[in-house]
Amino acid sequence: MTRTVTITDNKTGRQLECPVSEGTYGPPVINTQSLYKELGMFTLDPGYATTASCRSAITYLDGEKGILLHRGYPIEQLAQNSTFLEVVYLLIHGELPTRQQMDEWDHSIKMHMMTHEHLARFYSAYRYDAHPMSIMAGVTSAIASYYHDRTDISDPDNRLITARRVVAKIPNVASKCYRYASGLPFVYPDNSRSYIENFMYMTFSWPTEDYEPPAVAIRALDLLFILHADHEQNASTSTVRLAGSSEANPFACVAAGITTLWGKSHGGANEAVIRMLEEIGNPSNVPKYVAKAKDKNDPFRLMGFGHRVYKNYDPRAIIIREACHDLLDEMNLNQPLFEIAMELERIALEDEYFIERKLYPNVDFYSGLIYQALRIPASMFTVMFALARSAGWIAQWMELMEDKDFRIGRPRQLYIGEKSRDYVPIGER
Ligand code: CMC
To answer: Per residue in 209-228, is it b (16+ CB within 10 Å) or e — as a string?
Structure first.
């Protein structure tokens, strides 16, 4: 028997039986598609806290148990055994590649890494001190213009080429964001290098010297990128899907995702964590800031704490925390901010306010510390996140384009404005 949920309007007595669908995991969903037609009502769910916006087979997360799966594979296993480029293949294609598929994938990404030479001029339109996220969003949107007429988004082959272009060109765009702000010349990709190494080479090499990124840094970045690659229907991914639903150019959709990620409630938290730790300044000041975070009259929140879905430790944060310890040990770095972070974590996790609300450190609490140890400036942290997440965005965009229920996204509203009234000429107001 099909499971249903009955909705009764106690004003009119009218009833609607809504079918319930079960996924592989996770809470079942009530299908309310006929609600307006049958009962003349919409649903209201601020922040979409209980609304499933799509069916998806890419990523699953269980916030109560702290589980994260990509195409069924636990994030811990991918972090331990895989590489970012292999995880991107998995997200886009649905299966892990064979050796031959991986070699072809790696080669095809290298072949798409260059950007049109004119694109480099676009950067110079930005002020010297522009935030790199602003530059990244603008330049990524500009890439749409190079492929617009030649991209048929209804063609699966064209979509796959687009996905490869996104994965290949975004590191190039991101590296130039950094170099423009630092006054350094742009660097072409070097196809003899791996994906992560190439990104580091384009970003950090000097024209006057040979450059070999430290192995420990390559490993740390590869891990961070794996952990950031996708996270189901978060704000930026939902933005990419909504933009994609209007059949907009996929690069423009990714640019919309970058813009949404920038905010400090989302990907911008990694930069905000470092700024907060700098402001705290010393482990002895931690109690004062914890008290501020708990004070309802103070807008201050502990950056890097809390998550809409995780009501348990973010599994990515557990992996990053360990990697952060290892990296600092291996590089023999004494990072004062790390000490403050550990003290903050200790005090907050013992505090009734945070325990009651299930506020745990999230992925952004530690990622900034790793980036800082790698000497990446704070304003670039969210760019790093966007680079990795663009893989998830384009995988989700591809899934959207193949969805049998594909139609433009168009939420409704509860109107609370003025009733209809007559226009008053300006002299009579
Ligand atoms: N510090 C202090 N109190 C907090 C915090 C925090 N970081 N986060 C949530 N709360 C409190 C909040 O005040 C509320 O308390 P009360 O019930 O007394 O009103 C309760 O916890 C629930 O918070 P909420 O705002 O309803 O939760 P949300 O699901 O809407 O917001 C969040 C989730 C991540 C935006 C929020 O926890 C936050 O602002 N965290 C800090 C920013 C951050 O670290 N963002 C990164 C998120 S993870 C990576 C990503 O998404 O990119």
So the answer is: eebebeeebbbbbbbbbbbb
